[in-house]
Design a protein that fits this description.
alpha/beta; Uracil-DNA Glycosylase, subunit E; 6-stranded mixed β-sheet; globular
Amino acid sequence: MTSIGLNQLKQYLEYLNLSGVEDVYISKRQLPDPAIRLAELEEAFRNCTKCELHQERDKFVYGEGNPQARMVLIGEGPGAEENATGKPFIGKAGQLLTKMLQAINIERDDVYITNVVKCRPPNNRNPLSSEVQSCLPYLDEQLEIISPQLLLLLGRVAAESLLELDQPLKSYRGQTHEYKGITTYVTYHPSALLRNPAWKKFAWVDLQKVRDHYQQLDV
C-alpha cells in the first residue's frame, strides 16, 4: 500500500461518513509514518529552486527532532553552521536553545526544530517576504505531519512571518496566538539573547509559560 497524506486520509474519512459508514478500522500499518514521510519530503525538496536563496545554499536545512513532537520550535532561517551541515540550530545559538529547553525540563530530542525558510539568507539577513512565501508550504506540511499541540516561535521574524502582524516583539510575547489552529507562543531568538544577555530574564518569563502549558498537553 502506498503512503497517503493526512489531507487525503481526512477526505476519505469524510467521504465514508457522508456515505453512512460509522465505524472504520485502520491498522497502524496503514497510517503514514511521520518519520518516513518527513524523510521523504526532505529528500524531495533538498534541491529546491523556488526562490533565490538556493543560489548560495550548501545544505537544505529541513528540520530535525521528534516526528511526533507535542511542540515544534520555529526560527527564521539557517545560519552559517546550519548551512554547512544541514542541521538546524547547532551553532552557539543552538547550544543556548538546548539549555533553554533543559531549563524548563524539556530535552531537545522531545521536540521538533525547524525554520521558516530552509536555506540561509546571504549574510544572515532577514528573509524577504517572497522567500518566506516560497518556503511556507514546506513548514505547513511539516506541521500537518507532526500534528503538534504547541508552537514556540523564536524571534520577531518568525512571529511576523507566521502571524502576519507588524508589531514589536514585546507585543507578540505578551499574549498567546494561534497558527493553523495550534496554540503559539513567541520569545526571543537565542542569537538575540547572545547579543543582549539582559534579555534572558524576559525570555525566562516566556519559557515558564511555555513549560506550564507543555506540562498540561495530552500525552
